[in-house]
Amino acid sequence: MQFLAPLFFAALAGLTIPVLLHLTQREKKQIVRFPSLMFVRRIPYQSVRRRKIQNWLLLMVRMAALALIILAFARPLLDSGSVPTAGANAREVVILVDTSYSMGFGDRWARAQAAARDQIAKVAPSDRASVVLFGSGADIQLRSTAERSRLQATVDSATPSPSSTRFSPALKVAGSILADSTLPKREVVIISDFQRGGWRGEEGAKLPEGTTLTPVAVQDAADKPNLTVTGVTFARSSFSDQQRLVVTAGITNRTEQPVKGSSITLEVGGLTVGTKPVAVEGGSSTTVVFDAFTVSGRNMRASVKLAPDALAADNTFNFVVSPIEPVHITVIDRGNAASALYLTRVLSIGNTPKFEAVVRQGDAISDEDLRKSAVVVLNDVEVDTPLARRLARYVEQGGGMFVAAGPRARWPQEVDALPGTIGQPIDRTRGDAARVGALEYGHPVFEPFRAPRSGDFSAIPVYGYRNLTAAQGAQVLARFDAGTPAVLERVVGRGRVMLWGSTLDVSWSDLPTKPVFLPFIHQAVRHLAGYTEPEPWLTVGQVLNASAVTARGPAAQRVVLTPSGRRLPLDDEGTDVLELTEQGFYEIRGDANQADAIVAANVDPAESDLTPMDPREITAAAVGGGDGSGGAPAGVPLTPEAKEKNQRLWWYLLVAGILLLGADTLLSNRLAKA
Amino acid sequence: MARETHAVPGAQFMDPAVLARIGNLELISRAVADGFINGLHKAPYFGASVDFAEHRGYVPGDDVRRMDWKLWARTDRYYIKEYEAETNMNFSVLLDASKSMDYGSRGITKFEYARILTACLTNLVHHQRDRVGFVAFDDEVVEYVPPSAKHMETVLHVLDRLKPGRPGNLKKPLHKLAEHFGRRGVVVVVSDFYDEPEAILDAVSPLRFRGQDIIAFHVLDPSELEFGFTDAQPFEDLESGEQMPVVPEAFREEYRSLVRAHIDALTRSFAGVRVDYTMLDTSKPLDFALYRYLGSRAKMMKVR
């Protein structure tokens, strides 16, 4: 007899437990009331070691039960050949069925199902078969069963998914199933259209030794026309206060057959906006420009749809359009138009996003101004305590603030919101002017200047600056050449505050006249406003971050409505992310069951490239040997694990142990009553 | 013992077999030579009686009615006639009603045994025309029936409803009683004497010092003597509630020797202060114990 897990015998030490129980339990059974322990107290205490075992039968039953359970955990197996083993020809078959959307081309899916049924029909009663459906991932539908009816039903109920083809995960899943198998013969059958795009050859998917890999190609000559919408681009314009959008769709013909007389339709909000004719030569691409339409509301669902062809899934391209919201900025200035000139000019440029700046004097700031503003710029002004408190509260509630510390800048000490204290002015008009350096290129504000020749801050002379001292929790983004912080940033509550140690006009530095000024201010304002460009679409297989797209904190009751109509709750306990598995529009609904956000999901256009590959490439890589026809020779001795699994001695031992424990309970109850 | 309802409360203690054995014995006080029954015993006091004791010279203030005029006629001196006082003895039983007495392994608890003993003695003494009193104590005096010739039934009634409850302590109640018992008599202390011999002696000393004749009955259950337990079990002290694990087989010999030593120490200590001490085993018949004790008392009297 052998044991697969002999370490469990260490648990035999646990056999002392019933002995101790036996010796200690009876003591606790009854308390003897005695007139006085006066004499007993004088006798030295005797330890339990000297106590006698009262009931040998009970003790033996308990110890035998524990010993049997430990023996079961040690997983014994018998070496004798008398124990029946699996048949020498029994097979473990894994049927991998490609369900990527390219299988919807022509009659490929029907032929794939037929091929799977053929394989299932070959499964003998001693065999075990598994069905794995794979696209970009692999999903075990049915594992190691000999029930052909269930296998058939699984294949019959499967349909192509919107995912793309990846062979490697499927082979890894098959490998794991085979590795667990005890049957002597192992086979993998891949039923696929074997697209070139699904195999990169580098994945390192290896099947266990002796596995036979049988590719079943259902590809056919891609002679049917197949057009694909590869993407859309937008051109925005404004017309009498309304945003208008021109959609340009890219169309590729993946086949060699030229396509003429087809059409493409743009639908917005369920209404057809325009239809254009399409004509594409074989193996080439074209673009179709639709007429401009007005973006009337947020989260408008839009699709471009090609006329039906042999592969339907890649004919539709979904996207979401919303009017671009301008970023409102309030510039607090001392009322001198010249001081904010450069700043307001810079902010008036740009469309993504558009900045709308209003200039106010410190005492004219209303709550409405603050409520509307995404960013407040303090352009070298003296801030009194009440205003400072209002601004600090504004930042804590999620606003952004940019402070330019020129000669007049003052911030009350008692309000803790700035990333640093504004010290004495430093005059660098004599001698060399100060330079800005040590930029934190990893920060979003300076990230565009990372590459060489993409803006040089050190070339800008600064003639005067304030001696800044970084506060606790502030990050120094840039320094003057003397080592004093030049740009500081700090997170305050839900908002951010950035402090620039000089002016935004030409009184103290040449910065506003330099090319880096515009991207610096734009990046800083975008960053402070928390602006992110909305993605008009995602691809199936990508992960949707619900809290990011709704720009709200995680709500208590949110659900995602999938294109097929399923409702998936996004609760606080679960993650806030969701893998996109369907083509169409996902709705994220909030508390009031209103759509907070809509996300368009499209199939991966690469999957529509039906260029085939040689399946032997996969066979060679996965089984390591030329044709993959290797296999375990008949009558190979079973591994100890396989023997143990077949014999299942542990099961009988465990049952016997549990029965003995039951007997122990009965016995001890009787003894207790006696 | 089966409890039956009788016309007199406490009458169930009057076991006829017990009384039949002890009824023909005299309970004789050692120090007090006063008779139990009028005229039978002599008292050390002179008083109004028919038994002439002696003459003594007249001193002014003596009652002239007690002058022996015949002797005056013969001797021409004034003499007063003195007579033997015909006294009745005060007999009090001090019963330990502490919680430790409420223990019995053989169907009768020490307290019940002591109660029967008290009733028997009271009955016996009552029939000798002596005054019977009764005191129950734990760490305080719980019940007090002053000695009286008419208190027999009261004593039995009090005995009947008495229940042991609290932890006991000899010293405090006995010291208190010593001050209370003005008149000398016989005091019977019935207890299990769970205390150090020195402390017990200290407790009874004031009584003895004031001239009481003390008889100590030490009531013990056979389990307390033999420690015949078999299983290892936790033992709980009846009075303190303290628990401790005990392995009787390992403890037995030492326990027995400790109990023997305790009894021996009590015997020696009580003998030293002339207190009669008897150990009573509740498994032994009560009449036998009484008979043996009273027999030994009678022998001692004869020796004197």
Provide an overview of this structure.
The complex is a heterodimer of chains A (674) and B (304). Chain A contains 13 helices and 33 strands. Chain A has 674 residues and is α/β, with parallel strands linked by helices. Chain A has an eight-stranded mixed β-sheet with strand order 18-17-19-20-26-25-24-22, with helices on both faces. In chain A, strands 6-5-4-7-8 form a five-stranded mixed β-sheet, with helices on both faces. Chain A is flat, with a radius of gyration of 37 Å. Chain B is an alpha/beta fold and 304 residues long. Chain B has two domains: 11-32 and 88-303, 3-Layer(aba) Sandwich (Rossmann fold); 46-84, no CATH class. Chain B is built from nine helices and ten strands. The model of chain B is unreliable at 1-17 and 19-46 (pLDDT under 50). At the A-B interface, helix 1 and strand 2 of A face strand 8, strand 9 and helix 8 of B. Strand 2 (32-34) of chain A pairs parallel with strand 8 (233-237) of chain B.
Question: Could you list some keywords that capture this structure?
Answer:
heterodimer, A: 674 residues, alpha/beta, Rossmann fold, Immunoglobulin-like, 5 domains, eight-stranded mixed β-sheet, five-stranded mixed β-sheet, 13 helices, B: 304 residues, 2 domains, six-stranded mixed β-sheet, two-stranded antiparallel sheet, 10 strands, 37% helix, 23% strand, disordered N terminus
